Each structure stands twice: as structure tokens, then as C-alpha cells.
Amino acid sequence: MSNASGWGLTARLISKHFGVLGDKVSEAIASFDPETATEADRDRLADALRDVAQKLAAARASFDKEHADVETLRALIANDEKASETLTERLAAGKISEATINLFCDELEANKARLPLEIQQQADARTYMEELQKIVDAFSKQLADFDSAAKKALQTLATAGAQKELQAIRSERQSQLAGLSGLQGHSTALDALTRRAQSVSNEAAGMKIVADINQKPIDQAAEIDAIRKSVAQPDTQGETALERLQRLSGRSAAAVAAAVTA
Question: What is the pTM of this model?
């Protein structure tokens, strides 16, 4: 184990393990902005998080070892302190040499002198581990913030895309309706058809005028002929039998009457 103690050891550990990351770690923690970060920024932060997480795992193992060393040394010292009473009795009884006792005492004194250093190394390892944990927590929060912002951005993008598509459909429908409206009001084919219908109507009207003009003499001749017939053929309705005989025989009324009397 190192003989260094206090914050000097912690500073050297942090400098050693974070020398590769340098200012990138502090800059990422201080200035990382999930609202404007690119995917490359996230990858960089994720890589840094993995690096620090690995260092945190190693720091935890180191702390566990330092803690175990402290507990082992404490147990050894406590056990040796208990054994000292027995050794005192054996030394008084002449069952153990002073050289052996001195060796035992040297080891006990050395272990007691080393215990504060072991405790300090354990404290340094704990401090280093806790600092790494804070950095891991900071990176984890930054990644969570990024992912949350990215999710919102994707949702916003999807909504904007849907709105864009909707507006495109509306524009297409408007164009179609405008085309239909223009067809109804300004169709060349419909205009030509309307003009053709009017032309045919005009032709029909002209033919009717001509037919009416040609029909008029015919009607007038028929009217004159009817007059002639009415004049040429006297009205025989209501004539008496004598008058009828007179008309048919061409004789006078007196002659017809005398003939009828005779």
C-alpha cells in the first residue's frame, strides 16, 4: 500500500484516472445542452459515461479492498492486544523468550502505527468513489435530459410532418376545386357547345320565319277558296221541300207550285 495520506492521495488518484478525459468531463457537465445537442454530442457523453462508470466500478472494488484491509488490521491488533496478557504470563513463567516477546511487540506497534494510514487510505478511496458516483449521476441525468428532449423533438417533428402533409393535401384539394370552378366558368369546350346550341337555335328560328312566310300565301289562298266555295254553294240549311224542288229543277216557284197542285 502507498504511504501517502490525506487529500494528496485523492488528488493524485483523480488526476491519474481523469487525465485522459481532461477538460472534456467538466465541460460536458457544465455546458451540455440537450436542447441543441447533436447525436454526436450524445455519443460523446455516453462514451464518457461508460468510461467513468468503469472507473467507478474499479473505485468501488478498491474501496472494498481498503475497507477489508482496515477491518483485518483492526482485528489483528485487537487479537494481539488480547494475546499480550497470555504472553506476559508465559514470559513470567519462563515459557517464552524475551526475543520472541520483543518481535511480537514490534509487530503490534507497527500494526498500530499503520492503522491510521490504512484508515486514511480507506477514506481517500471512499471520497474518490463518491466523487465518481457524482460524475456518473451527472452524466446519467444529462443523458436522460437529452433523451427526453430528443423524444419531444421527434414528437414535434412528427407533428410538424403530419401538419405539412395535411396542408399539402389541402392545397391539392384546393387546386382541384379551383380547376373544377374554372372548368364550370371558363371551359372552352362548354363555351363552344353553348355557342353551337345558340347557333342551332338561331338557325331553327330563321327556318321558322321562312316557313311562316311561305305558309302565308298558302293560308291566304285557302281562305279565298273557302270564300268562293261558300259563295258558289248557297246555304241549303233550313230550306223547305218546295224551295229544294225549285232549286233542283231550276223552275220558278209558281211553276213548281202548280205542278205540285195538279
Answer: 0.47
